[in-house]
Inverse folding.
């Protein structure tokens, strides 16, 4: 009976999620929080959701390269000094005469062609950012009236397209709820924010990381060293060594964060792996690993992360204190709803910060507890290329050629399926001015 | 301190054809501040949605240049973040189309090598996200990495807020299913990743 009654009142999973996402407000939030204070089951549900969130956030990215920043700022400078005005006068100029359309069509054709070139020349390194920047600043100084002033037409078109399709977005009124929440998040006036080292909410890179809940431990005094070993071996048989390696890892309680075996055409089979081994077992495992073949190269390094860990602990402490203080404010506050909402928003922000720092901290601890072994194993070279007969190489070539042809054909079909309509449109666009041009030219000739 | 929307409005005002040098200078300053705030988040946005770092560099740059050229089109009805990420999404979509086109000429089908090989958990994460429904994955990523609210996600993806909520819930449930079904030993995930590359 009692369990039934309790079950009926459990918070719905979707509401728990909304809570974790900081989307609950007002009475709804109070209702959920009151229930959570008394219900272990729902609290566990929240913990599981937070766990998912933390796991997702282990996917960190590197920092934005300086080159990108420099380039954008260079463009901004040009924009500010008015060099870009040439581009902005262009539309008026192009409206002048009907034959200007002919020019425009030509430019467009060039643009389309350039796009195709640009796109097809792709591959690993597409156009370098620096050169793009230079090109644009140069073109920006072309006298006004040039139809293509400013950025190269295809680039510009792509950018404009990216913005153009937004027009409906803006026409539609913003959902009231979102506007309210967003406005809230942004009006940072009333709260002192000791923990807000960063004014905006960025996705902070997080180290490895694991599950929540573990408090900062007292291992602080011991030196914290994250060990990395890179080892390069030559072995008889990569496939067999790989099997043995998996057994070895299991035996030492380690695992492979990444493992690849590559077999290049006629080349030497290679295994590359990133292994994680409990730091205490590193020596033992390395010794066994070296028995697999001949050691070509070995380097060991250790990074002291104790300071980093201590810094994190200090920041965490500050954030936890400010969370507590905010919760205190919430308890004593009787003021208007908007203020309360703002405090709640702030709490959830601090909470997020705390959780990401905890994840970072655990990532550090993980890197200390588990040493990293970057392993490369090459198979003893049988030089297959030299021993291959002319016949087999011809056959190989023919097979390759056929494969490439088939691939290109499939690609072409895909391309037509995807771009067919666009191509027809472009052709129509190009064809119309050409037709007009031709008609006019004929008229002129007959009149003469 | 100014919020994003105020900065964007200052920038929009200075983008008008008729404005004077003072307004223009203020606009440039506002833009620079917005750039400072969003370069890293936006880079992360592209980095997680494209195969390699070089593309992410280019797209980040493209996106800010698109912003630079579109000041006059910003309407204060949209929050700055939704405006920016909507442009970003359009660029990602266009880039994916190009990649398909490119791949068939160069035969280069290499996609994801990962941004941080050190964290094995991130392999699990990428693998699991890759199995989600396309739209649900986008919603989840906007929520978790760009930290957009439900309302903002709804605006960026042009769907009702209720839909965002229910589909986000479904995405998270699916994610947990994937993780629970996956073998505890990350080696399998790593092997799968390796096999795909
Ligand atoms: Zn309950």
């Amino acid at each position: 009976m009692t369990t039934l009654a309790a079950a009926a009142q459990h918070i719905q999973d979707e509401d728990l999620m909304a809570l974790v996402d900081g989307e609950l407000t007002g009475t709804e939030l109070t209702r959920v929080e009151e229930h959570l204070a008394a219900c272990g089951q729902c609290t566990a549900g929240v913990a599981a959701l937070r766990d998912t969130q933390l796991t997702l956030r282990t996917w960190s990215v590197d920092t934005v390269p300086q080159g990108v920043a420099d380039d954008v700022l260079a463009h901004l400078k040009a924009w500010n000094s008015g060099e870009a005005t040439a581009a902005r006068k262009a539309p008026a100029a192009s409206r002048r005469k009907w034959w200007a359309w002919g020019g425009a069509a030509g430019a467009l054709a060039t643009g389309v062609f350039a796009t195709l070139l640009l796109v097809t020349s792709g591959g690993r390194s597409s156009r370098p950012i620096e050169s793009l920047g230079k090109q644009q600043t140069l073109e920006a100084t072309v006298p006004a009236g040039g139809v293509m002033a400013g950025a190269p037409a295809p680039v510009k078109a792509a950018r404009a397209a990216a913005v153009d399709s937004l027009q409906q977005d803006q026409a539609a009124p913003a959902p009231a709820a979102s506007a309210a929440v967003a406005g809230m998040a942004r009006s940072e006036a009333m709260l002192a924010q000791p923990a807000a080292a960063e004014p905006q909410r960025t996705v902070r890179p997080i180290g490895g990381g694991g599950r929540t809940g573990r408090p900062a431990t007292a291992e602080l005094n011991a030196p914290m060293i994250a060990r990395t070993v890179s080892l390069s071996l030559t072995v008889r048989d990569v496939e067999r060594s790989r099997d043995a390696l998996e057994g070895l890892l299991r035996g030492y309680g380690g695992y492979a964060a990444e493992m690849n075996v590559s077999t290049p055409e006629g080349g030497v089979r290679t295994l590359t792996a990133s292994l994680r081994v409990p730091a205490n077992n590193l020596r033992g495992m390395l010794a066994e690993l070296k028995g697999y073949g001949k050691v070509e190269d070995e380097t060991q390094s250790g990074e002291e992360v104790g300071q980093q860990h201590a810094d994190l602990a200090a920041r965490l402490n500050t954030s936890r204190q400010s969370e507590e203080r905010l919760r205190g404010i919430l308890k004593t506050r009787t003021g208007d709803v908007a203020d309360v909402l703002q405090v709640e928003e702030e709490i959830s922000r601090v909470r997020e910060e705390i959780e990401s720092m905890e994840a970072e901290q655990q990532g550090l601890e993980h890197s200390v507890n588990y040493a990293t072994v970057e392993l490369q194993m090459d198979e003893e070279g049988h030089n297959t290329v030299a021993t291959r007969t002319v016949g087999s190489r011809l056959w190989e070539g023919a097979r390759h050629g056929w494969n490439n042809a088939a691939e290109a054909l499939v690609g072409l079909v895909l391309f037509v399926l995807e771009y067919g309509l666009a191509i027809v449109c472009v052709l129509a666009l190009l064809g119309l001015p050409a037709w007009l041009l031709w008609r006019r030219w004929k008229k002129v000739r007959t009149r003469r | 301190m100014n919020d994003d929307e105020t900065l964007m409005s200052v920038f929009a005002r200075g983008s008008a054809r008729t404005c004077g040098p003072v307004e223009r200078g203020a606009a440039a300053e506002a833009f620079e501040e917005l750039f400072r705030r969003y370069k890293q988040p936006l880079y992360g946005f592209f980095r997680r949605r494209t195969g390699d770092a070089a593309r992410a560099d280019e797209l980040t740059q493209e996106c800010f240049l698109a912003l630079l050229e579109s000041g006059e089109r910003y309407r204060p009805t949209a929050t700055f973040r939704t405006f920016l990420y909507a442009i970003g999404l359009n660029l990602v979509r266009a880039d994916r189309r190009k990649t398909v086109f490119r791949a068939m000429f160069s035969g280069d089908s290499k996609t994801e090598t990962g941004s941080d090989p050190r964290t094995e958990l991130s392999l699990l994460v990428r693998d699991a996200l890759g199995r989600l429904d396309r739209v649900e994955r986008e919603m989840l990523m906007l929520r978790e990495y760009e930290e957009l609210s439900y309302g903002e996600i709804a605006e960026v993806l042009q769907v009702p807020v209720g839909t965002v909520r229910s589909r986000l819930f479904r995405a998270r449930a699916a994610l947990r299913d994937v993780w629970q079904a996956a073998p505890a030993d990350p080696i399998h995930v790593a092997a799968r990743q390796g096999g795909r590359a």
Q: What stands out?
A: The radius of gyration of chain B is 19 Å. Residues 115-197 of chain B form a domain with the Arc Repressor Mutant, subunit A fold (CATH 1.10.10.10). The CA atoms of residues 103 and 109 of chain B lie 6 Å apart.
